[in-house]
Amino acid sequence: MIRKRIAALLLAALLLPGAALATEAEEEISFSEEDYIELEHIDEEVPAGLEQVSLEEVPAGPVPEVISPDNPQSQYTPNFGSPYYGTDPEMNYWTLPMDITDEAAVWEMLMQPITVVDTGKSGSERAQLTIYAEPDENSRGVGVVTCVSQGVHVLETLPDGWSLIECYSSSFHNSDVKAWNMLVHGYIQTKYLKTKKPNTSYAIVIDKLTQRLYLFRSGALYTTLLVSTGLSNPSQPYNETRSGEFLMQVPAVGGFRDGSMIVSMAIRFNSGDLLHEVPHTHSKYGDNYSAYEPKLGSRASHGCIRVQRTKTPEGVNMEWIWNNRKNNIKLVIWEDWQGRQISYPPEDQALYYNPKGGEMYHNSPTCYSAVGRTFTPFTYGELDEAPFASLTRCNYCNPPLRKAEIDEINALHAPGGDHDPILTEARRQQELAQ
Ligand SMILES: [Zn+2]
């Protein structure tokens, strides 16, 4: 009961009116090739249907086993806020709490088969299918799902040839149904649902809350990279990267150019949403990443996922992923539901620095930022004390954020707040238009 009450309270918090809407004048947006490609996405943070859930209707199903009364954060699963939250007793992408420290459970989830929509004549790798409000092709479309690569959560298989599913709508600016990244539920013809096994060599979690890519291999977290996911703006609310579970598609897109911006090693995972290296420019002086690289670790793209080019201590960067690209590598994206919070790392977690004039703190005793050097350990608990307080975070090995930085992100995502009022307003406009 207590757990249900917590869920109800958090739902109530989500239902509170959003924060003040953005009023800044829109900036002039110039459209370019990258815009064109990345514009094919849409996203949202608050699940479709949430506004229809009254407190009395808080999920009727049992609270999933994975949710602990001692850890309110454990209720934030990818289908948090869905009317069907708690109704699936199985552990899968949709029901597993978004906790990267539970590596065994995350790996088990990543290796599970995935149910995709495949008409057999989907043709285009960007093809999408409409999700209907009723088991009837003449009913209203509530969202869209990308064929072949996007996973859906099958909730019920009806005897009449239709299945009830849920997923984040992969609505892009030109999709039939505009439901930017909304967690929608509706009907798809059962004959189009196919189960696919992911490639087992590795798998990827992207967390929009931490703006990090977690690469898993052989049952454990192997390495962590910085990313930038989509950043919405008043004229492009659909820039928000669509959440969900996906199978990466090879042959991949490769590189493309947009005026001065060059994008390399793009791999398609959701229609127009691509995983690629952080963009750069090129001049007679060489490649220059200074316009885009400092934004890694925060939202910045038009929906694609920009990945760091510097190598982690394990030797992984976007080039590694590109060189190891295979069909059906699973990539899941975790939604940063309002209310989700980042935990502080343990006080005794080891960090590293160079006591002879080093300016950075590191996650590893060796780092590609200083090849051949071995750093001196200290602890996360000492990070805000002299002489460590003045160290900056290394952008090769990605040590944890300082507590003040974590506090800032957590404040934005505190229950009852609204960390993306632009998207909230876009959703409100969509509802008015219906
Ligand atoms: Zn480092």
The CATH topology of the largest domain is what? Answer: L,D-transpeptidase catalytic domain-like
Gross CATH architecture of the largest domain: Beta Barrel
Overall average pLDDT = 85
Span between termini: 37 Å
- What is the molecular shape? globular
CATH class of the largest domain: Mainly Beta
| Strands ordered across the widest β-sheet | 11-18-8-9-10-17-14-13-12
Order of helices and strands: HHHEEEEEEEEEEEEEEEEEHEEEEEHH
Q: Report the bound ligands by name, code or SMILES.
A: zinc ion
Key descriptive features of the protein:
single chain; 434 residues; alpha+beta; L,D-transpeptidase catalytic domain-like; 2 domains; 9-stranded mixed beta sheet; 3-stranded antiparallel beta sheet; 6 helices; 22 strands; 13% helix; disordered N terminus; binds zinc ion
Structure explained in plain terms:
This protein is an alpha+beta fold and about 425 residues long. The protein folds into two domains: about 1-20 and about 25-335, L,D-transpeptidase catalytic domain-like, CATH 2.40.440.10; about 350-400, no CATH class. Helix content is about 15%, strand content about 25%. The chain has six helices and 22 strands. It has helices spanning about 1-15, 35-40, 105-110, 320-325, 405-410, 420-434, and strands at about 115, 130, 140-145, 155, 160-170, 185-190, 195, 200-205, 210-215, 220-230, 245, 250-260, 260-270, 275, 280-285, 285-290, 305, 330-335, 350-355, 360, 375-380, 390-395. The chain has a nine-stranded mixed beta sheet. Strands 4-5-6 form a three-stranded antiparallel beta sheet, with no helix packed on it. A two-stranded antiparallel ribbon has the order 1-7. Strand 8 (about 200-205) and strand 9 form a beta hairpin. The two termini are about 35 Å apart. The model is unreliable at about 1-60 (pLDDT under 50). The protein binds zinc ion. Zinc ion binds near residues 369, 396 and 397.
